[in-house]
Request: fold
Amino acid sequence: MTQILAKLVVIGLLDVLAVAQNAQQATGSVQGVVITIDPDGGRSVVPGAKISLDGPKHIDAEADAEGKFTISRVAPGSYGITAKAPGMTATQNLVVAAGNVSEVALEVKVEAVNESITVTGTANQVDTKEASGTNTVGESAVRNMPNRDERIDGLLPLVPGVVRGPNGRINMKGARATQNGSLVNSADVTDPATGATAINIPIDVVSSVKVLSTPYDPEYGKFTGAVSNVETRPGEFNKFRVSAQNFVPHLRRLDGSIMGIAAATPRITFSAPILKNRIAFTQSVEYRYERDSVNSLPVSQRDTRRESFESYTQVDMNISQKQTATASFTIFPQKLDFLGLNTFTPQASTPDLHERGFQAYLQHRYITGSGDLLTSQVSFRKFDADVSANSNDAYQLLVESTAGGFFNLQNRETLRTEWEEIFRVHPLHFHGSHELQAGTEFAHSSYDGRQEFRPVEIFGLAGVPLERIQFGPTSSFSIHQNETAWFVGDKWTVSNRLTFDLGLRFDRDSITNSVNTAPRAGFVLALTKDGKTLLKGGAGLFYDRVPLNIPAFPNLPARTVVALDTLGGFLSSTAYSNVIPNGLQNPRSEVWNLEVDREVVRNFLVRVGYQQRNTVHEFVLTPVASGPVGILSLTNSGSEFYRELQVTGRYQIGHSTLNASYVHSKAFGDLNDFNQFFGNDPQVVIQPNQRGRLNFDAPNRVLAWGEIAAPWKLTVAPVLDIHTGFPYSTINQFHDFVGPRNQLRFPRFVSTDLQVLREIRLPIKDKHARVGFGVYNVFNRFNPRDVQSDLDSFRFGEFFNGVGRTFHGKFILEL
Reply:
């Protein structure tokens, strides 16, 4: 299958290249810079200006931190181009010719005080068309905001309602990481086995990251939470561009002395035309070696290690005036040593997780003579994972610590092939304007796995075993899944004050052998004639796919729990078999939202919104015992709900942007999620299911961040994140829960991060570099990651393992 698909992709690429070389027509492109002239005649660039191109088609863009912008794939014709910055504007006419680059310098000038204001759907103004709750982290924020690991997921917590949970995973809008959709250039990038994100790409190729909390567009499916979509930057069709950074490693300091390397993350990215105006090539590679310390452990045993290599290759093609294509190839192997290391689990008792994968992707876009758009997309992904132990000794759960080697060994090999066709009709006029779309998707996934479980003993305060857990022989299995979807949608603009988003989606999953119908509807209503006050809302149904580790559950080794007396003697035993008693269903969420957006004064936007999601048919695992025989029951009986009240403000003053938000929320549901017992880092003790606050529930969160254009050409980017501490449960020496689950909480989390960058000119024409530094947890706040929750411990209730203040230097060479 892999070889056949690879040959098809290669043949397709060769055909596309041949067509590109023989094409008689091509689109053009526009490149330019936005500047302003000071009273003394000095010339300054205007970063972040909003660009609008109006003519045969309308295109929006944004200038980067240097005031530069590029608009590719522009149909030939006469255009008017407008640049807008706070209080300033510039307009100019230009002609775009096929196969040529139109260069323009836009000088923005102060607008007249009495000039009327037109509200458009740009990033810093109210959106008059989009009904769904969408938050975008744009290219400027990707470049400038502090990002400790310089990874895509480090940007997501800049979105209100998105937090990094206690296990380090991203939780969007009250959903587990495995319940969310994860896309790169609209292609699914989740692990077929677990449902979690399974791809990493260098952050330098990222143009924007969007979080869609209520995507009423029927194109989106196979999730019950929210969706993140990463868009990559288009290649350079007319010039060579290269950036390099992080070639100086971060040193590891302990007690004032340097002890090795803490991190080395060199990264280089370049883009250049292969055939001017026709084919652009982009390549980005990154090597990462990182150590993360658990300060509550001995110095020689406190580090986790991550080593990875990421390569992203992209080819953008202007085949003709009406056809474009993008192809990419990504590889992302990584090793995580001592996964789950914490105060109570030393290195020898943790697992190592080694992952390997690649993804091939091809998207073709064709515009018909009448202006309809057909988008064809195919992707193929292979993702393998191994979980191994660091010791062969018996795994032992103690009151104060853990001993022995990890109890679970895994080998997973997964494949996913996905094909999608979407047809969008040019606007039709009937009682308003209709933008119709229809599409279909097909995906095939497979999971070949092997799992082994080793014996576990639970020791009490007296140092004698209280319980022993034994497992059946190693198991191997193979699971396959076919998914089909088809959908129709209509963006109906009734008038310039009212727009509806209507959609209907059907999903079929071969695991559940069912067809799920998911209607959605959203609206945007301008409450005032000037379009500055909008009421938005909608409701819809969303169905998730079934991760392949779910149907594999009956094939996993069974377990026997042996109870022992105070001297370690036999008391009783219960043999559990793995059972799915009532078949499987697709999890389903019912979502609705309502919000008001208002431009209070010029460039000051306020949003007040409420969102509610009810999820049913979630997978829940619970033990059911009857004497010496029992079952581990996996059912669709789980349910969750999420409530969110959000108040957000955005203010742009000069070249600076400030964002602030307050979110009051509640995430509540069944707590025995399947992946916490059979995921990458499983827990061995399985207690009866309970309902309570979810592990990442943070009822109150204040988030403030900004990009500030400071004197001396500095860009200052601070982030303040304050939220309620995450909940945790109390256990005893038997590892039984005591009282209701998740009733206690960690201390309030408070973190202040800061990044400062300055552009410097190099002694090479039009070349420059950016230098600066980042400070994380500026005020050295103690934000613990571990708590002793065992009532029988003398340290019960104590918190450990906070991350202190850290500094990172920055030097980015851009040629």
The helical segments are 2-22, 139-144, 675-678.
